[in-house]
Amino acid sequence: MKPQEIDHIAIAVKDLESAITFYTQILGAAIEHREFVESDGIEEVLLKVSDTYIQLLCPTTPTSPVAKYIEKRGEGLHHMGLRVDNCEEALRDAIDAGATSIDTHPRPGSRGTTVAFLHPKSTFGVLIELVQL
Asked: Is residue 79 within 8 Å of 125, Cβ to Cβ?
């Protein structure tokens, strides 16, 4: 698995509009994409920062993984997305190298991407998302 670059840094937030205001007005980031991801129970906003994104994640249901994350750990850094050429191959390579995966196979992500997650217990405490554009 050889990542091309960091696709995004995801931040879990309770109040999406306040977070958008902070990142756009105070840091000057521009909104590039906004989407409800019903399968994950979230609304996401991607803010363009150079060649990568800050991804704001806000739960839309109290049972979504992001809602559970915020309840347990509070708002803040949720995961890092790494851009890869082939998500299936990158997932297989990561597992072969000793990583534990959350997804057994890549699945559809936002923006029409293909994604798979690696468990933070095997990646030194960081939830890693493999992202194929």
From this structure: no
> Could you write out the DSSP letters of every residue in 14-72?
S-HHHHHHIIIIIS--EEEEEEEEGGGTEEEEEEEETTEEEEEEEESSTTSHHHHHHHH
Return the structure tokens found at 70: 């915020």
Helix (H, G, I), strand (E, B) or coil at 11: strand
- DSSP state, residue 73: H
What is the spatial distance between Cα 41 and Cα 118, in angstroms, rounded to a whole number? 19
Indicate whether 1 pLDDT > 80: no
DSSP annotation of 122 reads G
Q: Give residue 59's identity as a one-letter amino acid code.
A: P
Q: Delimit the domains of the chain by residue range.
A: 5-132
For 68-88, the pLDDT digits (tens) are 999 999 999 999 999 999 999
Grouping H, G, I as helix, E, B as strand and the rest as coil, residue 110 is helix
Domain 5-132, second-level architecture: Roll (3.10)
